[in-house]
Amino acid sequence: MKKTEKQIEEEVVFNVEFYDVDSMKIVYHGKYVKYMEKARCALLNKIGYTYLDMDETGYSFPVVDIKLKYVRSLRFGDRARVKAILLEYENCLKIKYEIYNDKTGELTTRCESTQMVVEVATGETKFVCPDVFIERVRKLL
């Protein structure tokens, strides 16, 4: 698996909304996956190969593994910053995430996701990412 020599990363910043918290006004643990997705979409946009591009080129990239380590809580009204860092891109899409409280700078969560490539027409798992995706990543390295 090809690991990136130079880091390609992107960040998103947003306010923690009421609909993301529990009765104690702490972000519900399942919402962190949504926060990862926000940053992943921004990273894919930077690469120039979004979910729409995947669909147009006949591929899907289902998530096959997610790891999350909660360090401290985000709360209602906090400003969150999520950094997505591309780790691997030739045989799978592996991204590392760091979620911070943007006001304090404190790390709140460490995450990682792995997505495999599936050819939509056949449903077949591919063990190499599409050439178009690899080319667009390499343009940024």
Summarize the structure.
The protein is an alpha+beta fold and 141 residues long. 23% of the residues lie in helices and 36% in strands.
In the CATH hierarchy, what is the architecture at level 2? Answer: Roll
Helical content stands at: 10-25%
Q: What is the CATH topology assignment? A: Thiol Ester Dehydrase, Chain A
CATH class: Alpha Beta
The rounded distance between the terminal residues' Cα atoms is: 16 Å
% residues in beta strands: 35-45%
**How many β-strand stretches?**
8
Domain tally: 1
Using the CA coordinates, give the radius of gyration.
16 Å
Low-pLDDT runs: none
CATH superfamily: Hotdog Thioesterase
Order of helices and strands: EHHEEEEEEEH
Total helix count?
A: 3
Structural class: alpha+beta
Task: Characterise the protein shown here.
There is one protein chain. With 141 residues, this protein is an alpha+beta fold. It has one domain: Thiol Ester Dehydrase, Chain A (Roll), CATH 3.10.129. It has three helices and eight strands, in the order βααβββββββα. It has helices at residues 31-47, 51-56, 131-140, and strands at 9-15, 59-60, 63-70, 79-88, 93-101, 107-115, 117-119, 124-126. It has a five-stranded antiparallel beta sheet, covered by helices on one side. A three-stranded antiparallel beta sheet has the order 2-7-8. β5 (93-101) and β6 (107-115) form a beta hairpin. The mean pLDDT is 96.
